[in-house]
């Protein structure tokens, strides 16, 4: 069955024969956009007498097919003539509409809610009746003139005319019949619509009024909840010690505990926490099952620990507390950049045509960027490198795990206000951060792949640790929000103990893409594994919920040994701080509401693992950059020729010259596309040479190879990753960058 009048088609992907001289008919294959799941589909298009029609196949154009789909089953039918097919289609459509009406709720004959509603409804029905009368008159005229036309055509058929003329007259007669059937169907549909409006108008009016009342009630409820939330938060901040006197807290011989309800949005949450008061150790209740020790645990705990020890800044127990921030840098680095210009641009006007596409493939002006590349954002993970310096000095691998977990959470602290998009690195672009003299580490990133975009990162520290990762960013625009999913494992190894930790990042979500203020949330689970000792840490990043009583941006976790026994409870938020509480005793508790027995953990008072540094002054006008981020694009002498600091469009944007930055960005992207086309042509030539007699063996074409990283199979995960192969820092010492490609 042809699909007529359903929009325009895209450019043809198949040649069509040119129309014959004097003919107004043009036929050929085109690819027509259908939806975001199927994309473009091949269709046979026919342009005839000013009417553009398209079909799934050429055969459909002359067939009288009918396709019925019902309840997952499809019936393929065929009528004897086109007129008969149209009659059946019209009858089926009317039967479908009637069946739908019969399924609708026929309840209620109540009057509208007010006299004004009743008057408005009656006026609308009168207008509909008047319009229906006009349509009936037009239908009578169409029927009268159509009948006359058919009589004339029938008389013409009786005349002795050539065979070709007779066929054309027959075709015109069929079209006239179709026209009359369609007009009758139209007037019947209009009459049915009026009947439906009269029958259901009162029910619609009641439903509308009900929805209005519900909306008003919900708005009032939300407003009251917000006021109560703010009031309770102020009261808690002003008098935190009053928690111990809460009358609703049940007591035990060990102290009083107050149950706090976790977020109810996750159906698989197994863990519920209860916090102790100031005068006793914290009690934490974990919902347990028989296989708890052999499975990952989800967490829904909320902590309200007292301020007796954590406010004194105590860190993890058992490790030497020597903070890397106590080392004074030997160089004065910049503390500000030019303020962000106040350019307005509608994000939705650009993104609405990009739904379902990879973010890295969407051409975006610099107006939505921040003057840093993705390589520099990746380097920002080192903002709290002193956590790893401290972890390297830990004698206990479990305490070391707590600090590693805090480090994994701290990498998100700079993202809470960072809604701008970093620059996509060019293929072969690098970024170095040499803090060897100041903090004892050196960091190098390189863009090793462009589609999909992938960056390799390597950090080595004189404090006794090495970190490396290969991150591929998968991002999807969903219409209302943007999901950013980093793919790839992060490896961390401590030199003295050989402890090798591996974890992966959670999903970042940018909300309010269409309307409202942009904001970022982190959600998902992180499992950190020490592959030498088989100890684990399960972290849960709870998604933000307006109706939840939990602290926003909450992170909770459990550190367990290789047998699954829990030793530490972690709690905090990814934008502020993380704490650890050592478990000193565990016992079986009462059964929960679902009949499962709970394990009660008694812990010491929580100790601070990590706390976010305050943002620099005027940060809101400097893209909300942290102290480290402000220095990342600062000019450095002696860096590689492919370093992000030398990227011209990014530098122009930082200087506030956004129009020039947009032009430069387009130039760089076109240059990169030209290089890619040349590389693809070389690959094609290499394949062609394999088939020639002159080069029977062909020549091997390796494709693009990164300069400082090469692919190796990881012995722990079995994955093939890009790892640092060496040579960069030696080249920097020689100031020999002759091997660097010209990408800028």
From TrEMBL:
GO process terms (BP): lipid transport
Family (UniProt): Belongs to the OSBP family.
Entry protein name: Oxysterol-binding protein
Source superkingdom: Eukaryota
Keyword Membrane set for record: yes
Amino acid composition bias (Low complexity), ranges on this chain: 7-22
Lineage: Eukaryota, Metazoa, Chordata, Craniata, Vertebrata
Keyword Transmembrane helix: no
Keywords, sorted A to Z: Coiled coil, Lipid transport, Lipid-binding, Membrane, Phosphoprotein, Transport
Localization of this protein: Membrane
Membrane topology listed for this record: Peripheral membrane protein
């Amino acid at each position: 069955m042809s699909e007529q009048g359903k929009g325009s088609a895209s450019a043809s992907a198949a040649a069509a024969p040119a129309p014959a001289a004097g003919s107004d008919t043009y036929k050929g294959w085109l690819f027509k956009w259908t939806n975001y799941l199927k994309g473009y589909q091949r269709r046979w298009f026919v342009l005839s007498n000013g009417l553009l029609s398209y079909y799934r196949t050429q055969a459909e154009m002359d067939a009288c097919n009918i396709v019925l789909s019902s309840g997952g089953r499809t019936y393929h039918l065929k009528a004897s003539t086109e007129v008969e097919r149209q009659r059946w289609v019209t009858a089926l459509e009317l039967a479908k509409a009637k069946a739908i009406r019969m399924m609708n709720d026929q309840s209620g004959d109540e009057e509208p809610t007010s006299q004004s509603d009743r008057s408005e409804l009656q006026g609308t029905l009168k207008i509909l009746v008047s319009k229906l009368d006009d349509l009936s008159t037009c239908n009578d005229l169409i029927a009268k003139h159509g009948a006359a036309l058919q009589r004339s055509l029938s008389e013409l058929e009786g005349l002795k005319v050539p065979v070709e003329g007779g066929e054309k007259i027959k075709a015109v007669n069929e079209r006239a019949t179709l026209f009359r059937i369609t007009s009758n169907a139209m007037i019947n549909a209009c009459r049915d619509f009026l009947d439906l409006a009269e029958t259901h108008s009162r029910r619609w009016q009641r439903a509308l009024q009900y929805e209005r009342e519900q909306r008003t009630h919900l708005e009032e409820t939300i407003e009251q909840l917000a006021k109560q939330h703010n009031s309770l938060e102020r009261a808690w901040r002003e008098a935190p010690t009053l928690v111990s006197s809460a009358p609703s807290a049940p007591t035990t011989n060990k102290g009083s505990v107050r149950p706090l309800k976790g977020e109810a949005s996750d159906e698989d949450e197994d863990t519920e926490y209860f916090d102790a008061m100031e005068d006793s150790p914290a009690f934490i209740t974990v919902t347990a099952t028989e296989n708890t020790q052999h499975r990952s645990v989800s967490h829904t705990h909320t902590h309200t620990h007292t301020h007796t020890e954590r406010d004194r800044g105590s860190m993890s127990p058992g490790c030497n507390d020597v903070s890397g921030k106590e080392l004074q840098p030997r160089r004065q680095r910049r503390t500000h950049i030019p303020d962000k210009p106040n350019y307005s641009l509608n994000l939705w006007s650009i993104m609405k045509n990009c739904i379902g596409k990879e973010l890295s493939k969407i051409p975006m002006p610099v107006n939505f960027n921040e003057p840093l590349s993705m390589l520099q954002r990746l380097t920002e993970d080192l903002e709290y490198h002193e956590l790893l310096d401290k972890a390297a000095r830990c004698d206990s691998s479990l305490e070391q795990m707590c600090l590693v977990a805090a480090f994994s959470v701290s990498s998100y602290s700079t993202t809470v206000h960072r809604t701008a998009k970093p620059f996509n690195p060019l293929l072969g672009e690098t970024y170095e951060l040499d803090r060897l003299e100041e903090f004892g580490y050196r960091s190098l990133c390189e863009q090793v792949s462009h589609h999909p975009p992938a960056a390799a990162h390597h950090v080595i520290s004189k404090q006794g640790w090495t970190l490396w990762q290969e991150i591929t960013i998968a991002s999807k625009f969903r219409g209302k929000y943007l999901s950013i999913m980093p793919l790839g494992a992060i490896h961390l190894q401590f030199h003295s103990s050989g402890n090798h930790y591996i974890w992966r990042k959670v999903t970042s979500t940018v909300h309010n893409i269409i309307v409202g203020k942009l904001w970022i949330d982190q959600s998902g689970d992180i499992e950190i594994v020490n592959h030498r000792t088989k100890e684990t840490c399960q972290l849960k990043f709870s998604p933000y919920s307006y109706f939840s009583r939990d602290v926003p941006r909450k992170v909770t976790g459990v550190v367990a040994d290789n047998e699954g026994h829990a030793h530490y409870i972690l709690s905090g938020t990814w934008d502020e701080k993380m704490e650890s509480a050592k478990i000193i005793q565990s016992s079986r508790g009462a059964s929960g509401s679902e009949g499962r027995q709970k394990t009660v953990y008694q812990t010491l008072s929580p100790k601070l693992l990590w706390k976010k540094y305050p943002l620099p002054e005027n940060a809101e006008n400097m893209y909300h950059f942290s102290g480290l981020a402000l220095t990342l694009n600062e000019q450095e002498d002696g860096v590689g020729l492919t370093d992000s600091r030398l990227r011209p469009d990014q530098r122009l944007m930082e200087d506030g010259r956004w129009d020039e930055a947009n032009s430069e960005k387009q130039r760089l992207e076109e240059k990169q596309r030209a290089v890619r086309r040349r590389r693809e042509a070389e690959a094609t030539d290499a394949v062609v040479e394999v088939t020639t007699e002159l080069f029977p063996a062909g020549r091997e074409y390796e494709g693009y190879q990164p300069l400082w990283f090469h692919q190796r199979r990881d012995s722990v995960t079995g994955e093939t990753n890009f790892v640092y192969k060496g040579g960069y820092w030696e080249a920097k010492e020689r100031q020999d960058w002759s091997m660097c490609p010209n990408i800028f």
